[in-house]
């Protein structure tokens, strides 16, 4: 079964005006598409979180802290709806962050650079942030005003299959040339890397949410199946008051709620586990204790990979 991506209708804006004229209306103003920008931000308890922010008060006893190093995620199946719940016709701009094909559409939100503070390339061993940022999805919408936004956090399965089957990792169209596990395992949908501080020392945190069991051991992801066994794509549905003022917020403390901030310490050469220390580790594996809390906070069922927007407490609407 193919993923639905009807909300990413690729209709030239001029076609909307022609459609209205064909219907016999003299005043087409109400039917013309209007530009929109859906903004995103990282926040904690009402305050912005960035590369130079020290976020404290986390962990079981409130003694742990983090410094954001990399926060990126894909958005797909974006839907803008009016107060009656009617789906509004939406056309996304096409650029290096927003891509569409017949298999689906996707946008990359990147809230961090890689030059300052804890985002610097030498801040953690697994630093992978990029210099470019993209904090708003842009396009045009017809109708409104917009009263609700809904979207998936991740790469659609059909688009993942098409991209991997027809490209090398380096040759994939932007923004699908980053954030993949590998070409055998598919894409990570959500990435947050960060420094960790605790009363017992310093460490690192890695939260990577992506699909699992996507293909044969010796082949490409989705070459032998319609979708990954565990899709692991969070779903978000939020009411908005004013799209020009509101932003979709990633509440960093909510993502990390319930985590004990203790993670394995590895030998950097053999990757043998040497012990435990301050840190967070979730690469979408049920064998990693931190994933149970991360998945629950994002409204994901780890046993099935299915998503519930009502259970996703990480994303909210605020005015930064």
Tell me about this structure.
The protein has one domain. It contains four helices and 19 strands. It has helices at residues 13-22, 157-166, 252-255, 289-297; strands spanning 34-44, 47-48, 55-58, 64-81, 89-92, 98-101, 104-110, 136-142, 148-153, 180-182, 186-198, 201-210, 235-239, 247-251, 262-266, 273-282, 298-300, 307-312, 315-318. The two termini are 39 Å apart.
Large-scale geometry: globular
By DSSP (H or I, 4+ residues per run), the number of helices equals 4
Number of domains: 1
Helix/strand order, N-terminal first: HEEEEEEEEEHEEEEEHEEHEEE
Helix content: 10-25%
Helix vs. strand class? mainly beta
Summarize model confidence as the mean pLDDT.
91
Distance between the termini: 39 Å
Count of distinct strands:
19
* Residue runs with pLDDT of under 50 for 5 or more positions: 1-28
Biggest sheet, in brief?
A: 11 strands, mixed
Cα-atom radius of gyration: 20 Å
Report the β-strand fraction as a percent range.
35-45%
Write the layout of secondary structure elements.
Blueprint: H1 13-22, E1 34-44, E2 47-48, E3 55-58, E4 64-81, E5 89-92, E6 98-101, E7 104-110, E8 136-142, E9 148-153, H2 157-166, E10 180-182, E11 186-198, E12 201-210, E13 235-239, E14 247-251, H3 252-255, E15 262-266, E16 273-282, H4 289-297, E17 298-300, E18 307-312, E19 315-318
Parallel strand pairs: 1-14, 12-16
Antiparallel strand pairs: 1-2, 1-8, 3-4, 4-7, 4-9, 4-11, 5-8, 6-7, 9-13, 10-11, 11-12, 14-19, 15-16, 17-18
